[in-house]
Amino acid sequence: MKRSKRIISTAILSALSLNVAAADVSFYGKANVSVQSSDDGQGSYSEMKSNASRIGFKGTHTLSNELEVIYQAEFQVDLDGDGDTFSQRNQYIGLEGSFGQVLFGKNDTVFKQAQGKIDLFNDLNGDIKVLWKGENRMSDSITYKSPSFSGVQLAFTYVLEDSLDKDDAYSVAVSYGDKNLKKANVYAAIAIDSEMKGYDAVRATIQGKVAGFTLGAMAQSQEKVDGSAEMTGYLVSAKYGMYNWTFKGQLQAADHDGGDDNSGISIGADYTLSKSTKLYSFYTTYDMDSNSDQDYLGLGIDYKF
């Protein structure tokens, strides 16, 4: 009897080992917390912010020599304790092969992804989503990305209407190069949103390395699907690394047709402690025509695992 149990246990463990060997799973996360002085236009106050801190797991499972399952489940974690402990971020399952990859679930649109790494104050108060539309993470979405052809990649997001009172929406993007600027010194992209959260938009992005600097520029136009609320805007960013320091700056503008001309300026410095950890400081100020001006000054820590 004992021998039979040992045989069964060995068989179960062997099966589990084979399944694990066939899958590639990684657990990851980021803790980003800042202490800052904030002025939203009504006066200055101190606060602690959890800047899109997150945990998740992702991986692949090989089905054949030419086909893999790919998946991800990521959750935002509120480390300062002011809101919900967990909320959804990108969560999907899909297939990848010689045809490219196709993903089903909740995911950043390809329009949003087309920005690459040009937003140097992403997840902080200087995030480009403050002045522009298009930074969307959509449920009920299907995303397709083609293989890279000499550095050129096509991508498409289709969002199902999911109810009678909504319309389907889509994003299309064409990109060249590597958004991390590791395989190539230049990244460029053009993207279009159609009826995405009630807006149509066009975005063009370019970023590259020049004489030790990483320079980027982006232009965007947007309007509501009914043709109102037209806006044109631009963004320029630059960063420079020296020893463990990275110095960075960013300017963004949003000019509304017949309305406000808003702008934001951010400057900052990062100090790298290790490959996983950095300390950072930033100052962001917004000049708003009709609304109150805003100012933010902060210090923070960013840890990735």
From TrEMBL:
<feature type="signal peptide">
    <location>
        <begin position="1"/>
        <end position="22"/>
    </location>
</feature>
<keyword id="KW-0472">Membrane</keyword>
<keyword id="KW-1134">Transmembrane beta strand</keyword>
<keyword id="KW-0406">Ion transport</keyword>
<dbReference type="Pfam" id="PF13609">
    <property type="entry name" value="Porin_4"/>
</dbReference>
<keyword id="KW-0732">Signal</keyword>
<dbReference type="InterPro" id="IPR033900">
    <property type="entry name" value="Gram_neg_porin_domain"/>
</dbReference>
<dbReference type="GO" id="GO:0046930">
    <property type="term" value="C:pore complex"/>
</dbReference>
<protein>
    <submittedName>
        <fullName>Putative porin</fullName>
    </submittedName>
</protein>
<feature type="domain" description="Porin">
    <location>
        <begin position="10"/>
        <end position="289"/>
    </location>
</feature>
<dbReference type="GO" id="GO:0034220">
    <property type="term" value="P:monoatomic ion transmembrane transport"/>
</dbReference>
<dbReference type="InterPro" id="IPR023614">
    <property type="entry name" value="Porin_dom_sf"/>
</dbReference>
<keyword id="KW-0813">Transport</keyword>
<dbReference type="InterPro" id="IPR002299">
    <property type="entry name" value="Porin_Neis"/>
</dbReference>
<keyword id="KW-0812">Transmembrane</keyword>
<dbReference type="GO" id="GO:0015288">
    <property type="term" value="F:porin activity"/>
</dbReference>
<dbReference type="GO" id="GO:0009279">
    <property type="term" value="C:cell outer membrane"/>
</dbReference>
<keyword id="KW-0998">Cell outer membrane</keyword>
<dbReference type="InterPro" id="IPR001702">
    <property type="entry name" value="Porin_Gram-ve"/>
</dbReference>
<comment type="subunit">
    <text>Homotrimer.</text>
</comment>
<keyword id="KW-0626">Porin</keyword>
<dbReference type="InterPro" id="IPR050298">
    <property type="entry name" value="Gram-neg_bact_OMP"/>
</dbReference>
